[in-house]
From TrEMBL:
Protein name per UniProt: Methyltransferase type 11
A Pfam family assignment: Methyltransf_25
Keywords: Methyltransferase, Transferase
GO molecular function: methyltransferase activity
Domain of life of the native organism: Bacteria
Residue ranges of domain Methyltransferase in the record: 48-139
GO biological process, one term: methylation
């Protein structure tokens, strides 16, 4: 990776894919409406979703285009994406196992390229240049930022207790250490920032920013919070090794004690959309 000492490896999300459907809150339909309106989409052109994971964003936006391609370096994520596509009856998406750094990979030209919390895992200057060359004259790069594993922090009254995220994080640290894990490496300072400078240097203009407001309250079960934890790169199942069962038992004990009738409640976070034009 060009802009940090951390290097990607294929274990980054090993074992996490199956937990997405259970533990991650889905993107709202209003997100697709906002992107359609902002880009004046009319059902033509192709979508490229880079770092598509289990297809959460790909499948939401695919109906806005003639066809879509989701690319990801994790085979488990792509298997989950294919399963979801079958369940949804979506037949217009092609799933490709490759890293973003391998683009353009003879995939052709696209009207929109999307990145949903994936760009920070890549060689960002390289990927920005390569994806820019894959966009058509009216193309757009769309970055979707939203925390989908947990809701908004706060003390406003909810119908059930909030998940005890500070205690969950403390438990993860007890098992994995205080420095954030990521694949076979660590991220002492978290994921990198400075996206704007990289995009401008790659020849993009903008950005245009949109916020899709949510704020609705959702109820969540103990199982959903367990999967939310395992869906994260910093607490992916493989990181625990032979202590995985012990960690999950401790996590479930913590959650069961904090829940009421096995339930939690959270207020959903807004979704930020950043649009760049080549």
């Amino acid at each position: 990776m060009a802009d940090t000492a951390w290097e990607w490896d294929e274990t980054l999300f090993a074992g996490s894919a199956r937990h997405y459907s259970v533990g991650r809150l889905p993107y709202p339909p209003e997100l697709a409406d906002a992107i359609r309106a902002a880009l004046d989409l009319d059902g033509t052109g192709r979508l490229l979703d880079v770092g598509c994971g289990p297809g959460s964003l790909t499948l939401l936006l695919a109906p806005l285009f003639e066809a879509a391609v989701g690319v990801d370096p994790d085979r488990g994520m792509l298997a989950e994406a294919q399963r979801r596509a079958v369940t949804a009856g979506t037949t217009t998406v092609e799933w490709r196992h490759l890293r973003a750094e391998a683009l353009p990979a003879d995939l052709g030209t696209f009207r929109v390229a999307t990145f949903a919390q994936s760009f920070h895992w890549m060689d960002r200057p390289l990927v920005a240049r390569r994806v820019r060359d894959m966009l058509g004259p009216d193309g757009a790069w769309v970055h979707v930022g939203a925390t989908t594993h947990q809701g908004v922090t706060g003390d406003d009254p909810l119908p059930y207790p909030r998940p005890p995220w500070p205690q969950i994080n403390e438990l993860v640290s007890r098992y994995l250490g205080p420095v954030r894990r990521a694949g076979q490496g660590t991220l002492p300072s978290g994921t990198p920032s400075g996206e704007g400078e990289i995009m401008l240097a790659a020849g993009f203009t903008g950005p245009t920013r949109i916020t899709v407001e949510q704020g609705m309250v959702v109820e969540r079960s103990v199982d959903e919070i367990v999967s939310a934890v395992f869906s994260l790169s910093s607490s992916a199942p493989h990181l625990f090794g032979d202590r995985l069962a012990a960690f999950e038992a401790d996590l479930r004990e913590l959650l069961t004690a904090a829940a009421r009738d096995g339930r939690f409640a959270e207020r959903r976070q807004d979704v930020g959309v950043v649009i760049w034009r080549p």
